[in-house]
Automatic annotation (TrEMBL):
It catalyses: L-aspartate + ATP = 4-phospho-L-aspartate + ADP. The keyword Amino-acid biosynthesis applies. InterPro entries: AceGlu_kinase-like_sf, ACT-like_dom_sf, Asp/Glu/Uridylate_kinase, Asp_kinase, AsparK_Bifunc_asparK/hSer_DH. GO terms for biological process: homoserine biosynthetic process; lysine biosynthetic process via diaminopimelate; threonine biosynthetic process. This is Aspartokinase. Keywords: Amino-acid biosynthesis, ATP-binding, Kinase, Nucleotide-binding, Transferase.
Amino acid sequence: MRVFKFGGASVKNAPAVVNTASIIHANVNGPLMVVVSAMGKTTNALELIVNAILSKQDYKNELQRLKDYHLNITNELFKAEHPIHKEIITVFDSIDDLSIKSFSEDQLYDQVVSLGEILSTLIVAAYVNQNGDKCTWLDAREFIKTDSNYRESKVDWDSSKLAMTSINFEVVKCYVTQGFIGRSTDGLTTTLGREGSDFTAAIFASCLDATSVTIWKDVPGVMNADPKRLPAAIVFEELPFKEAAEMTYYGASVIHPKTIKPLANAGIPLLVKNFDNPKLPGTRIHECNVDDLPPLIVFKDNQCLISCKVVDYTFIDEAQLGIIFKALAELSIKINLMQNSAISFSFCVDFRENKILKLIESLQHHFEVYYNTGLTLITIKNYDEKTFDFYRKQKGVMLEQSSRSTLQVLIKA
Ligand SMILES: Nc1ncnc2c1ncn2[C@@H]1O[C@H](COP(=O)(O)OP(=O)(O)O)[C@@H](O)[C@H]1O
Ligand SMILES: N[C@@H](CC(=O)OP(=O)(O)O)C(=O)O
């Protein structure tokens, strides 16, 4: 059994859905589990709608725009009498009901934002069937069981695996299901964190003991840098799980960071392939050794550098670090780079405004706090002399750190 995952770019408009269906067609004899994300930038649009509902602002225009976007796609793909148009309208109508229910902010977020994946999978499943291939729409929430930590839910692996024993590939060869979403024990829809559909593919693969996972992207495979940043980047034919895990940890957005662990633990290869050119070999991530990997460069934008300086010339010690780490843990903020001197501790984190302002406020009770935003963290794994010199000499370096294999520089662009 194999798992395919199609992201937002693979289903961003009608021709993209047709292309996705053609890739499914070539593999539909299965057994196949197809995981699909929301179309294009739908999740961002649904976030705007949730924010408008929460701040009691008008959300109807944005909702109409998103509804039109989906209905334009169904109008291009299906005849007027096809039931899909009505199904899509029903999903959009449900947002009005959700907006007046007494959910917490995060619960409301998950109930609304998860609808992007419901919409896309209804359309893809209907189109694959119209195309003459048999596939069954599967509600991922019946199988991906999570805790109640809305927006960033943790998977209950045992319950999910148990639920998946009812999936029968003898009866149905091809299922189409949603990435990114699950269900809590409270019975409400949950989400697994932004860009979490790759992770969903890994969960299904691990629980169903798949032979491989293929994630279909707009790039020819995993490259030694984001080709949008470095057009000369080269494609890896194969990569060890360890290298891929580290790349994602440093911020390479081509694969969601939680995807690698379940696959590596189960020994399930991860293939990254190009949806525009499925014949290209792509990248195979598996247990292997690759000698002489080229320097691997990861750019992580929207970084914030925070420096905590002691106020009375005490040296930075374990107690002071304890205060800083406790504040970070309470807000679930991950450090991307850190460095200490005698009287100050500096660290770099993703700039999520709400959380960071709360963090700074809490740290100001103990330290003089300085911070800079709008920074980019560049990580170069397996650097050579040329890349090492080049990135250290970038303009605006604010912090720099290197080990025997990895150089990190934080720059103000
Ligand atoms: N090392 C890398 N190799 C290939 N693509 C990368 C890399 N780092 C970042 N990317 C970016 O990842 C994008 C694909 O991921 P993403 O946009 O999340 O796809 P989707 O949402 O369709 O799943 C590419 O368009 C590319 O710009
Ligand atoms: N639609 C969700 C989940 C996801 O993984 O999307 P994509 O596969 O397009 O990155 C998001 O945008 O966060």
